[in-house]
Amino acid sequence: MNVVVMGSGRVGARVATILDQHGHRVCVVDTNPDSFRRLGDSFGGDTLIGTGIDEDVLRRAGIEDADVFIAVTNGDNRNIMAAQVARTVFEIGHVILRIYDPVREDTYRRLGLHTVCPTTTISAMIIDQINDFLPAYEEI
Questions:
Q1: What is the mean pLDDT of the chain?
Q2: What is the CATH number of domain 2-138?
Q3: What is the pLDDT of residues 56-91, one digit of tens each?
Q4: CA torsion sign, 79 to 83 to 85 to 90?
Q5: Where do the domains of the chain lie?
Q6: pTM of this prediction?
Q7: SS (H, E, C) the chain
């Protein structure tokens, strides 16, 4: 499987590393070349300095042959824009993006994008843990 990952922060680097270790072809795009150090010495994929909302950068990253595009920068707007470019311009069938804002996440999920919202996920996990030690009649 060919994957383009936009963002080499903690999440992007981890996902890219795991995919690479499982034999997938991975290209990581980031505007900060220092962020690629998170990939580690054993990373066998490619890295590309640039922004994932630039079609030329995405072409150099191999998006035209990609099976999956993942947008996990720390900016919702960049992730949304890049995901829309990947989906509409390059017709990538599997586009996954992180969105911190739960309201926006819901909107883009309804538009057919595969979204991950850490705000919603972590909040639900915390509530679940609180419910584990509350009496049943006090559950949130």
A1: 93
A2: 3.40.50.720
A3: 999 999 999 999 999 999 999 999 999 999 999 999
A4: positive
A5: 2-138
A6: 0.90
A7: CEEEEECCCHHHHHHHHHHHHCCCEEEEEECCHHHHHHHCCCCCCEEEECCCCCHHHHHHCCHHHCCEEEECCCCHHHHHHHHHHHHHHCCCCEEEEECCCHHHHHHHHHCCCEEECHHHHHHHHHHHHHHHHCCHHHCC
